[in-house]
Amino acid sequence: MPFDVHAVRAAYPALADGYAYLDGAAGTQVPQPVIDAIAEAYRRGIGNVGGAFPASHRSDGIVAECRAAVADLVGGQPDGVILGPNMTTLTYRLAYAIGRDWGPGDEVVVSRLDHDANVRPWVQAADRAGATVRWAEADTATGELGVEQYDALLGPRTRLVAVTAASNVLGTRPDVAAITAKARAAGALSYVDGVHASAHGPTDMVALGADFYATSAYKWSGPHIGAVVADPGLLETLRPDKLASSPDTVPARFETGTSPFADFAGVVAAVEHLAGLAGAVTGTRRERLLVSLAAAEEHERALFGTLLSGLESMAHVTTYGKPARRTATVYFTVAGRTPGEVAAHLAQRRVNVWNGHNYAWELTGALGIRDAGSAVRAGLVHYNNESDVNRLLEAVAGWTP
Fold it and tell me: What pTM did the predictor assign?
């Protein structure tokens, strides 16, 4: 399936400023349809849900459409889509609800590869319950998260396994399906962080074996909205803290306060935009998403080959991790320069990257680089092009110690 990056880029007004946006791993720019959808929701008038008047009905419809769109993106069920401000907030909310039934002797398995948002909520929930935390280790040379280690980590008292679908700094894509299969065999739930992974190819949470799948729209061209998707029947078994007067139905019982309904309209537009990345693809929205995101992934993979080989060919550059399966994300340092200096140098040359631990707190500690400022992260998404990559490579190549 052809991928027209020029047509894709034309949809993003922010890209007209002349910068190379290689900061997508921290959040993407938004296309015009998303901007228009948010503005139109406000323009038409919206109210809180559950009212008798048209503006409220519009909000009811937006919420339903948003749940359906996220479900199509990840392969879940609309009635199992919990919406909220971000993945971290939702994960803390779920950790309180899930962990309230844990006790001494119970065990939770987390990984050093994960973003801290899929580590700390579970560690803290275990601490409250007196449960034991067990750690899956990442190979610091390759960046891989070995599946075999889970045989020793899991047991009859394992209650939950938290694992990432892709590292937000190394790009590593662990064998999540194999890990969750082991968790299921042990009678444990699996909570999969798909925040970084969802932007970089098709997602099928059922094939991954995820009991809970977390994602964030701002990583895939949407507004700052998070979602956690689960089977509605599983959500029925959980009792989160909530107001006595708020809905007790699933998934609404997990959503506190008044929602940003206009942003939800932007999420729908973002999913529709992703479904059209490969052009005039036919079929259901889910089918179009699978085709378009596969085409976008192939586009990113080709560009990333140039970026990674270019950086690895430079004697003054060190890259971290060599995973067999990865997203188009690279983590690197430049000899004689701090990561902050590298990011500033690139910014002066109109190239956007991030530096620091990027919330990969455990991983950067295991790599031994956290106290020295960690590293520089450059990440490609579907709107990046060859010029973006070449500008970064030229700026780094010409800045030797």
Answer: 0.98
